[in-house]
Amino acid sequence: MLERHEIEAFLAVAEELHFRRATERLGLAQGRVSQIVGRLERRLGVALFARTSRRVTLTPAGQRLYDGLAPAHQEIQEAVAQALATGKGITGTLRVGFSSAWAGDMVLRTAEAFRRTHLGCLVEIQEIPLYDTFGPLRAGVVDLQLTEFPVEEPDLVAGSVIFSETRAMMVPADHPFARRESVSVEDLARAPLIGVTGASPPYWREYIWPSKTPQGKPIPRGPTFVYWLEVPPLVASGRGISVASLRAARYHGRPGLTYVPFCDAPSMDYGLIWRRDGFTSRVQAFTDTLCRIRAGRP
């Protein structure tokens, strides 16, 4: 019979294939996982891992044990989570918003894991328009939102940064900047900048689409947009340039566009926000699930 700590230590090493990372993942003292696995191997009389100075791999016996233990361990974890969710009243509907495609990917992954452990709670997901980034949350259309920071609203709470993206300049493919490896924030003063219009706070718009460079040079204004999908064709047609996440090239790339990273701009930070009076057990459970997935602990 295997003890719980032996199962968890074995599974952590089998998934990380690295004793130090497995130790950090379990929050144990340095060397503790190696001791547990070593005792387990001696008790079973078989080697579960092949160790060299450079790598750790599963032996055939270790792989067979992992294939048998991992699904059962997952089922136990989900059963416990479901029991806790029932006891805490995590039922009903949770509405989660996102403001970009890459934030949407994170929300969808989290929702899939959340549904497995909170069977009594329905998750609804929707995109939040940039022209009114806090409006749906305030109106109760969504309960929780993964969005661009900064957030400095007295009625809203911002959690910690979940992930950060490199900031880039979106330019026409024939623009002189397109031939560079990187650009400077000061270069924004040399071309009209396409920005968002609408009800989003001025400080939020200024952080993403600034009106001046760090040296105080005015940035000429180009056309404005309401929905982000308007931006790529505006840039490709030469109407102006835009600021975007570098990752946007994977979602909004098209002929006639180039994304050039900034060498001196702050990152684009994303995090969860919720109403100050709306931190329910559902919101907390979804937040915990997202943080575990982001940390590599699904």
Automatic annotation (TrEMBL):
CDD domains xrefs: PBP2_LTTR_substrate (cd05466)
Domain annotation HTH lysR-type: ranges: 1-59
InterPro entries in the record: LysR_HTH_N, LysR_subst-bd, WH-like_DNA-bd_sf, WH_DNA-bd_sf
UniProt-listed Pfam families: HTH_1, LysR_substrate
UniProt-listed SUPFAM superfamilies: Periplasmic binding protein-like II, Winged helix' DNA-binding domain
Keyword Iron-sulfur: no
Keywords, in A-Z order: DNA-binding, Transcription, Transcription regulation
Highest taxon, organism lineage: Bacteria
Record bears the keyword DNA-binding: yes
Family: Belongs to the LysR transcriptional regulatory family.
Name by which UniProt lists this protein: LysR family transcriptional regulator
UniProt organism field: Streptomyces kunmingensis
